[in-house]
Amino acid sequence: MLLTYLDSNSWLIEIGGQRILLDPWLVDTLTFANQDWFFKGYRTQDHPIPENIDLILLSQGLEDHAHPPTLKQLDHNIPVVASPNAAKVVQQLGYTQITVLTHGETFTLNTSVEIKAFPGSPIGPTLVENGYLLKELASNLTIYYEPHGYHSPSLKAVAPIDVVITPLVDLTLPIVGSFIRGGKNALELAQWLQPQVMLPTAAGGDVKFTGFLTKFLQTKGNIEEFRSLLAKNNLSTQVIEAKSGDRIELQLQKKGVGV
């Protein structure tokens, strides 16, 4: 199993002989509703578009997960698995193979990788986006991904999970509180799932942010503090902090039974 970190929430997952591009923001700037004055993300250099992608996997329809400039550059014939909200984005861009996953539904990629959708981040009063469990069918190795730190208790039924990609520190705003939830939420998830490895997402990589909103953003906690939390709770989970462009080969202990 190989994971390449492409900044923010973007990952290339190589599992079961498949190359899955997750929540890609690889080119251009990141804004919400084209409001640069409010919030703008940028990098000094775009990431090259990865080759030989077997699947694009989208957890949310917001621009930092379904990034229109990146999706415009990707081959529109690549199959897409998406939350209902993210599916609307790729439908409007003309993608030809779109599978919508609602919570509890599964998709199997080329008889090699099973993808199951779980309840993820709430967006507004009624919409709940997706977290995903990926399982390599040949080995039963599993990865769970949720980019904002909202974890459904239904995950307990599929524990243990080998690899978890989720925020490990909090990002907060006045009045709103933590909108990216790491810390105690990530610790609780580790207690539920007993992962071999956890990797932080959402706040890292070679990106910078400007705009009105950034004046109020605050980070609570850090990776070393989270490692200490794991140790204090007698959890042997390894935390790997990937740098931009890192391609990490995970050495995992294989399980004898499926999830």
Automatic annotation (TrEMBL):
Domain of life: Bacteria
Pfam family, one: Lactamase_B_3
Record-given protein name: Zn-dependent hydrolase
Protein source organism: Fischerella thermalis JSC-11
InterPro entries (UniProt xref): RibonucZ/Hydroxyglut_hydro
